[in-house]
Amino acid sequence: MLLEVGALGSVVLAGAWGLARLRRARLYETQRNRIAVIRRTHAQDLGLNRHAIPDFSTHLVRVPNFLPAAVFARLRADILHLQPAERSFVPAHKKGGTVAYETLIGEAPSVVAYYQSPELMDFFSAAVGATVSPTPLDDQSSLSVLIYDRPADRIGWHYDHDFYRGRHFTALLPIVNEGSAEGGLSHAELVARLDGREVVVNTAPNTLVLFEGAVVRHKVTPIDAGERRIILSMTCCTDPRARAWQSVARRFKDTAYYGVRALWT
Ligand SMILES: [Fe+2]
To answer: H/E element holding 235?
Structure first.
């Protein structure tokens, strides 16, 4: 009898798992089609040929006034329209809000178009000295909005571990950064260890920060009450294929941002 109950339980579990996988496959197919449409209908000139190719020798570059004012204003307006973010809290390490890739695909096509822009990826490729492309659809961190707007929102020292076969890069574009620190910015400062020194990287709005997070250890200091810092975070890599253990490890890492649903999304 016990044996039969066990066998029945296994069949039910296997069926549920198979159904969940099928649903995800269908969802990704729909999202892939949606991104193809977005790429066709939202193409725009980002004006990036205004910039010289930055020097990536420290594995981190900063480009102020990254987008032309009008392009940045549109992107900012589309991001500020989004619904409230998912909140995450990892004791003593991380606190803040995040809007995931999946939500952006559904609600912010212009933001997805910006990330998927060949002009943007060409700029990143030239900067890092290797051809990069967006990271995959099932990676919720590929494109996300990070929100620091409650007292002590922060993230402690960490690396952005590389869960792909190729090299992996993070690009941050601050959308809002306002508070009572110097220059009217918030106290949430990006600090990176570069050449053995801790360096505060200015993240004023419309300043691109592109870095290789697997090499550059970094943190964001706590924000003060009444301050706000909203960052568009994008990742790209030289080879988006991943080994099975890398995919599993990435999903566990993503639970810190998106909760346990990251294990099956
Ligand atoms: Fe990071």
So the answer is: strand 228-237
Ligand 1 centroid distance, CA of 208 (Å): 15
- Distance in Å, CA 260 to ligand 1 centroid: 19
From the CA of 215, how far away is ligand 1's center (Å)? 11
Question: Regarding predicted confidence, which is higher, 64 or 89?
Answer: 64
Between 247 and 42, name the one with better pLDDT: 42
Question: What is the pLDDT at residue 18?
Answer: 78
Specify the pLDDT at position 143: 96
Asked if residues 63 and 54 have their Cβ atoms less than 8 Å apart, the reply is: yes
Average confidence score pLDDT of the chain: 89
With a cut of 90, say whether residue 14 has pLDDT above it: no
Cα(170) to ligand 1 centroid in Å equals 8
How many angstroms does the Cα of residue 213 sit away from the middle of ligand 1?
6
- Specify the higher pLDDT residue, 23 or 91: 23
The CA 30 to ligand 1 mean position distance, Å, reads 29
